[in-house]
Every structure is written in C-alpha cells, then in structure tokens.
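FAQ: What does the model actually see?

It sees only this:
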Amino acid sequence: MKQLTLNPAHKTAGIIKLPGSKSISNRTLLLAALGTGTTAICELLASDDTDRMLDALQILGVSLTKTGTNDWSVVGSGGQFNVKQADLFLGNAGTAFRPLTAALALSGGNYTLSGVKRMHERPIGDLVDALRQTGAKIDYLENEGFPPLKISAAHHDLSQPIKVRGNVSSQFLTALLMALPLTQQAATIEVIGELISKPYIEITLNLMARFGVTVQRDGWQRFSIPANSRYVCPAEIEVEGDASSASYFLAAGAISGSVGVDGVGDASIQGDVRFAEALALMGADIESSSNRIIARKPASGKLQAIDLDCNHIPDAAMTLAILALFAEGTTILRNIGSWRVKETDRISAMATELRKVGAVVEEGADYIKVTPPAQLIPNAEIDTYDDHRMAMCFSLVSLGNVPITINDPDCVAKTFPDYFERFSEIIVA
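And it is asked to produce this:
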C-alpha cells in the first residue's frame, strides 16, 4: 500500500486557486447532455468522478469534445439519449450514479448500472421506489435496495405526486428533479420527513433554471415541474471552484497562518461556502469577496470549540472534526447522519482515526463529539478507507507540528488529484 508522510508544520500562507466543484461539474455535464443546443463548459473538475460521468455520456452517444485543459464542449441530445442499450460502470461516483439512474429510467431504453464494491453498499432503494411510482422498471441485480441495477424501457404516468424520503441522501431528490423534465409531463415530488443537505438541492434548482427549467417549490416538502419543460443549453457555463475542497485550505489558515482560496466567495451557489461561517464561530478571522475567501488564525492564537448543526455543510463538516483537535473545549457536530452512507461510514472512520492522534471521541447515529488531546500523538498512520475526504482532512494534523502518515493518498483522485502538491504550497518552511 502506498503511503505519504507529511512533515511537521506550524505556519501556513498563500492563495490557492480551487479546482471546479464536483457537484456542479457532474450536474452541468448531465444537463448539457440532456438539453437542446451546445454548451461550452469552462473549468470542469478533472477527477475520477467526472471521468465516470464523461465516460457514461460518451457511451450513451453524447458528443463531447475537450477544448482546453479543463474546458469541454457538449452537444445536447435534445432530451433523449441516442443509445438505448448500454452497460455503464460508474465507480464510486454518487453524483453520476444517482442522476443517471433517474435519467435512464425515464429514457425508454435498457441499461445496467454498476460500480465499485462500496457503491454496491450505498443505498439507492428510496430513489428506485420513487421512480417505480412513475411506472419505471428497475430491478436489483444483487441485493435489494442497492446497486447494481437493471433498467428496462417502460411507460410513465406522473399524474400522482411522487413521494421520496428526504433523510437518507439529497442526491435522490436531485436525481428526480433533473430527470422528470424528460417526460414532458407535469410532475410533483413530495418529500417525506426532513430533507437533509438542502444546499445541494439549491445547486440543482439553480442549474436547472440556467438550462431553462424552473421548478416551483413549497418550502422543502413539495416540488413541481411544469408540463412541456425542456432543457435548453446555455452557450457557456463556468464551473465554480469546489467549496468543499476550499475547507481544507481555509482550515489551514485558521489553524496556523493566513490562507485564501480563489473560485468561491459571496456569490457562490454552493452551501459548503458557509464553512467560513463555522470558522468565524470558532474565532478565525474571515475576509470574503465575490470570488475569494481568506481565513486567518485568531488574534488570540486559539480556536474555540463549537456545537453546530451541520445539515447545511455535510461534506465540509468533516473538516470541522479535524479543527476540533486545535480548539479549546469539546466540539459537537450534529445532524451528520448522511456521513454513514458516503464513500465510507464517515462517522465511524473519523472517530477511529481521530483516536489515533489522541482525541477523545464519542460517536452517535448522527453526531460526533471531539475533545482534543493535550498533545497530538506523532507518527500516526491514518487509514483513508478509499475516501478522498478522509485523506485531505487528516493532512491538516501535520499543522500541529507532528508528522503524520496518510495511507493510500491517491484516493484524493476522486475529486482533487493534485491535492497534496497544492497543500505543500501553503506550508511555510
């Protein structure tokens, strides 16, 4: 197994240009593929997850041309994929697997969708149940409620509201919202229970509107799509920097210096940009403009523990669990149940690895409590569980002036292939 040892560090400085947002990249690719016209997509994220979406769209007959380092031209299929039979492998890319499941279920073709072992452990039953309410024909090829899936051509009736649970993954609602305009029928979705990760739905609605489909919503419980909706490709769309990836660099600034990120700011449509607010609650000095955020170490020199509902920043909240190591008091992160069905069970994984560096950790079904040690344990070997965010989060431990070893560091390729090189740029010798 490959390992990467990060040397002790105690000071950071610099400005980092962020890679494109994974959430925006894969949503934009699919909407452009389903629309009428041609879209020039600028600053698309280059990563394993976007590669899975690009590969799938090419197999489905979508015309894709790389026009620059991170720029693509996508010729829309006018709402119908040309290829009506295909086998798609989607790795562990939830932002590709869930929306493609819905789009293909409503496309009148025959498809199989599979992924890596972990993807086959991530639940998809709520999305399948919702799609079956429309008449979609979807079969489980292995375990009930989980991929891989077989999708067959079917007729769809959207005359009744589609009901979907909101407390497992917001990607299920995103998938339904993005796919339903393909039917040309009026459609209503009713969310059962509390909807988690609401800011990710805001991203979905914002991008759908940019492609010409406006969704009416009644709070967070009812969403309506007008009849005869269709996607029309904008001539050009630029992908924002990834706000979740920004969290590691902003945290580094809050811990030990001053670090800024370019690509997100006050104008961002991503919920994880509010990570900066959590840093401010911990005492960090935050400066922001439309396209830049800078985080600085508190004037007092010490961060303070927080007790925070993290529903609005589910991915960036992982970084707060590491910041707890540098804060006075016990940090409590709540409403993070979605962590358990991500690339790994992130609550369990985070608790296990934090203990290796000396933290006292309590985990619950949807919360984690972290009390920092008096002194970080040096030379810990951190397992990453094939989870990019575990690897990136634990790089920050080195800023406590202790060496730390990251196992399987290449797992960051899922969203940020050159993360460790970029991280090294902000370390002051």
